[in-house]
Amino acid sequence: LPLNQFDEKRLHQLHRSTASHDTTTSFVVRSSNVTLSVFPETSNVYARWAACFLSPTLTESVVNDFEPKSSASSDGSSSSDFFLSDQETTQKLSRRLLSMVHPFLSENFCVKGVILLHNSNHSPADVVLVDLSHAPTAAIDHLLEVTNGQTVLSGPEAVLKIILISDLAFQWDGDIQSKVAAARSAPRSHFDWPTCPVCLHRIDQLRLGLPKPKSHQMCSKFCPAPSSLVSSGLESGCAQQRLLKPWPSPSRCLTCSVIDRYWKTQVESAMNHDEEPFNHHNLICCYQCRLTETIWVCLTCGFVGCGRYSNKHSVEHFEETGHPYSLELATLRIWDYATGTFAHRADLLDCPSSPPVMHPWIRQRQQSAQMNNASAWHAGPSKSPKKASMIGDEYEALLQSALEEQAQHFEGEITSTRARLTQENMDESTITPEEAAEIAQLKQEIASFRNEVDRVGRELVDWQGKEAGHRAKSQKLLREQQVVTELLRNLKEEIAKERQNGTLQVEELELQIADLKANQKMRHQFSQDQELQQAQIWGMSSDTPNRNKKGKKARRSVRK
Length: 560
What we know:
The chain has helices spanning 8-19, 56-66, 87-99, 103-108, 137-147, 173-185, 197-202, 239-242, 254-271, 313-321, 346-350, 355-358, 360-379, 385-424, 433-528, 530-534, 551-559, and strands at residues 26-31, 36-38, 49-54, 82-84, 111-117, 126-131, 151-152, 155-159, 162-165, 191-193, 295-298, 304-306, 325-328, 334-336, 341-342. It is an alpha+beta fold. A hairpin with a 2-residue loop joins β7 (151-152) and β8. It is elongated and about 155 Å long.
């Protein structure tokens, strides 16, 4: 949200509106940034909304008619956020906006909110949140099946992308900057996907959790060649390739702009027969080291950096920001840093209207320039021409081997794709009524199994919660057992000490009893003997070695 529109009450109202399941209210908010974060370790998450990425021209034309006049500026443009609390007005907004996108949306769903992106640098598309809180799982699956990969009704050249959303948070610009700085120093727990529909269309749809494109939505090497449409003035002869063009203003995607500018520069340079194509005034290079070969562009934010075999600035950008998808400008391949694999749609690169296929000499000139630079770098000024030629030949052989391996890989992919398409395009007329009935029954069983999986998933979450509670109680009992064991050990030690002290006291008492018995015996002898009764005891005045004896030892010596 823009910082100059800070309003704590409005922020609280937005969070309360998104947290409720009320379909009678909706909101329109203007944001300076939209981030689509994905948490790989999170599973069994319930989708509450569907994020539909639309052109700002489309959303503004509809939203402006529903904005209260008190919140509109003097020139008629929107200037602040507003809420629609009337059910009739909310349904009217939903029908009008969604009918311009896809008929299935307008017939089955309502709009929960509209996020208008206002950013002078990077604002690919506005976000329309479709409420899914009351939709069954089958309806959500059907929504993704019939909408993704299609074109927006009001814009035939605009691809439609819908992503399921489980949580939504609003933050102010100041809070975002501080949280971004803290997130860069913390361990990475999520990745930020692109919010541009064109960039999302370039990525393998299965990686995005979307259904696989249908046969008519995929390219192949049998697509119409661009040369057949030169007279019509079209840049591409394939309808799917035309969906990859940047959206017109006011939409501004940095990534699409970089890709379009790169290929226009290369084609213009090749047509002018420039000997140094990389010294063009409109040059695209790494933002950090100004390198012009093996450069990649981030699909999330449009950052241009060199590859992992150069100075690794694209890798560093991923480690700092968590933007996983990066596109190589020369080949239009997409690399997923999160999984370490390629993530592009192979069918889009096989199309004859794809820029690398339309202009293969550009790639060949770049490879030649890279080999010459590598030879010059390895050879140095003091190396002989023969040495430089040998290094160049070795580099070319390695490159050719890598290209052959890639060719074998993609030929295998093409073969498997053809077999899969042949199986999918079977003539339905050959299916008997019994087989059709069996297919319908299997579909019903699959739907019931999906519902059962959802139910078991919810029960699993509940049991996991109970298990966590029992585990906490078990740990508490173990700690109490350790405390009781320590107390018992201390008591045993104290009892042993008391028993030892009691034994010493018993021995002392036995000695005292023996002394008393000896004394009584002597007294009895004195009383019986007259001579002893008349005897006298004389003490000695001289010191004796035993004069300092005291206590029991002294008495024992007297008895002796």
